[in-house]
Design brief:
This protein is mainly β. The strands form 3 sheets. The protein has a 3-stranded antiparallel sheet with strand order 1-2-7, with no helix packed on it. Strands 3-6 form a two-stranded antiparallel sheet. It has a two-stranded antiparallel ribbon with strand order 4-5. The protein is elongated, with a radius of gyration of 21 Å. The protein has 2 helices and 7 strands.
Length: 106
């Protein structure tokens, strides 16, 4: 949401409130694939792993909190993302609970 108000000097003050939402379904449909560096991994191979019980389809979803930013009249750039305060990798076992999702739904 963008809001515009009049500043003390009569110049417009532009505020921006925004939120990021993501959703994806990871499944292993034949005919698709992914490139990891120089290696191509067809989804059919992952599908075979799923069929024998070594891989699992899953949903991924998340939302950020609402962020606020006031644009400067000088035309400065919007700031980059802040440090999330965690690595968010497998070595960070509490990552999922801190994101508000609790246990993984399987």
């Amino acid at each position: 949401m963008v809001t515009v108000t009049s500043g003390a000097d009569g110049q417009p003050v532009v505020g921006l409130d925004y939120q990021v939402n993501v959703w994806d379904r990871y499944n292993w449909d034949e005919g698709k694939g992914v490139d990891v560096g120089p290696i191509h991994i067809p989804d059919g191979e992952m599908g075979q792993q799923h069929k024998v019980g070594l891989a699992q389809e899953f949903n991924m979803a998340g939302s950020s909190s609402v962020k606020h930013y006031e644009l400067q009249a000088s035309g400065s750039d919007v700031p980059g993302p802040g440090d999330p305060g965690r690595t968010g990798e497998r070595s960070d076992p509490g990552r999922h609970a801190r994101d508000g999702e609790g246990e993984l739904g399987r």
